[in-house]
TrEMBL record:
PPR repeats lie at residues 213-247, 248-282, 283-317, 318-352, 353-387, 388-422. The keyword rRNA-binding does not apply. Keywords: Repeat. It comes from the Eukaryota. Belongs to the PPR family. P subfamily. This is Smr domain-containing protein. Residues 646-722 form the Smr domain. The keyword Coiled coil does not apply. InterPro entries: PPR_rpt, PROP1-like_PPR_dom, Smr_dom, TPR-like_helical_dom_sf. Pfam families: PPR_3, PPR_long.
Amino acid sequence: MVINQISPFHTLYKTPNFIGNPGIVRSYCSGEWTEDIEYLDESGSVIYSGKGIRSVEPGLDDHVMVGGLKKTFLNASAVAKIVEVVKRWKWGPELETQLDKLQFLPNMTHITQALKVVKDSDASLSLFRWAKRQSWYAPSDECYDMLFDGLNQSRDFDAIQSLFEELVRESSGNEVSLFSAYNRVIQFLAKAEKLEVSFCCFKKAQDYGCKIDTQTYNDLMMLFLNKSLPYKAFEIYESMQAAGCLLDGSTYELMIPSLAKSGRLDAASKLFQEMKERKFQPGFSIFASLVDSMGKAGRLDTSMKIYMEMLGSGLRPSATMFVSLIDSYAKAGKLDTALRLWEEMKAAGFRPNFGLYTMIIESHAKSGKLDIATSIFKEMEKAGFLPTPSTYSCLLEMHAASGQVDSAMKLYNSMINASLRPGLSTYTALLTLLANKKLVDVAAKILLEMKSMGYSIDVSASDVLMVYVKDGSIELALRWLSFMGSSGIRTNNFIVRQLFESCMKNGLYESAKPLLENYVNSAAKVDLILYTSILAYLVRCQEEHNERHLMAILGATKHKAHAFMCGLFTGPEQRKQPVLSFVREFFQGIDYELEEGAARYFVNVLLNYLVLMGQINRARCVWKVAYENKLFPKAIVFDQHIAWSLDIRNLSVGAALIAVVHTLHRFRKRMLYYGVVPRRIKLVTGPTLKIVVAQMLSSVESPFEVSKVVLRATGDSVMEWFKKPIVQQFLLNEIPSRADILMHKLNILFPSSAPEIRSLTPPKPLIAGKGI
């Protein structure tokens, strides 16, 4: 077979050109051609002839034929050819067909080098997946690294996750270690903030025994810390320790501040010490976080120690660190150290900011160091900072609390001139100060300014009124109340009642009546206790014009007890019922669950009043009904034939006398009519009432012997005493006048009708002619 091919450049080549004849079909078989092949020049002369040789079979041979010589296919040429095919066809069946027709046998080195050149991630994946189906494929860490790098650059994280799944299956099936690829995937996903996916890949890598490097741990911990999941980051840190992975400087720089800021100070301190033992130099961020966290946690000694250690290492504290230290010491009340740090901060060239000025001023003011607070306050103004309302308020309130009126008013005026609006607490403190100093006019001016600022002033005005009431400055309280009324400021009924009671206590009955009328007209209810307290003043009253005022005040209460009192002193024709029935009807209308104590108080005072007015029979009716309603359930005790007793320790003087007479009358009926005679009879009086009861009974020659707190006698002696006519007259009619006078003296000596609140004021002289 002859090939008529003439090369015009045959003289330029040492070897002939082999150009195939279109008429010849090559057979890719293992045998050799038997025909002779002749190569002719332009003139037709034979240049060369020889046997044909089998051509290279793609995919099987790793060489090319140059004439009859085998020539190894260079790696660079193979890589270039693969890259050319991949760049042209990119992906799909056509790409795989072209790769199958390569004139050489590829290997993993060719694929790896080609992946370095091909930048298209889809084309790279197509080439990689074609290679995986070849018999010569072997898993390569470097190959996976380049694939993951390309996918990360294109931000195709879904493809990264999919390829990672292939990596897991491949590494588990072939028992190969692809540590670098595992770590690279986790790092890429962590830096891309793919929280769940990165942690899932991390767990899978751990399950397959993959060795996680320090950078991967760092990236994961940083991700969880940035996502505000410090405890998950600490879990990864514990995994890092359990895996025996050594911490590097960056891990320390990452974990110590995170542990400190999350409150795990002991763990942070432990790592800090470990870092120094391993000869790592802590950075400023570690010192700053530890100083700040220890200070905020109250570990001031540790915070200061770390601060001094930082200075010793040559690091210079920042303004933020100074602020943190000063704030911690100021809040802990260690103002001397805070002030020293304040001076160090200024000496270091840092200018205190607005917040630091405010904090240091307020902390000194609240601790009572007003001189230092005022000095720094002036320094703040000179530095060009305008103090906030809170700073003004703190200083003003502390000056007010210390009673410095001039300084407080100066600060208030300065605040108003600076167009700052004082807070409610500031006004309250200033008004309280002015009230305590009894500066009524100034307080009224401040209150009206407070109203112009838009505040509701009713409560503040009532607070000032309460200050005057508690202080006993009744005239100032009445003057302030008059100002409130003229300014349209309302007060509450509680304070009106307090002022009314203060007026009553000080004998200002004319001023008390309008207050009570105002109290009643504002729909407030006069309870039984208030009515009884007014009645008690009437009992103690010794001046006729005051009695008229008190009677008018009692009428102004509009309480049902006053109607009862008026009816009690009228005749049976006007009442249309006997006294006992009238008294029972009134006491049946009392709610004893709510007013039992008040009813007991009322009975004590009422009996005092009735005895003083000489209304003994009415008084005995009141005592009888009170005992029937169990207001004094333990007063009388019948212990069959052993002992009978009467306990009057909790009664007023008048009630005690009536109780003794009425009870002895009951004892007399039992003993004379029923023949029951006890062994002994006791009258438990207590030390106060013992005198009046003993002297009253001695006037009728009673057999009772006086001891410390008890009057006692045998039953037989009392039986004989009851048989005397004078005793019968004494028990049935009235108390002798001598005892009445004595009772009146004791009532003046103990002016309160409620025995539990008796006072020891000196006795007033008994006015001659006072009717009993």
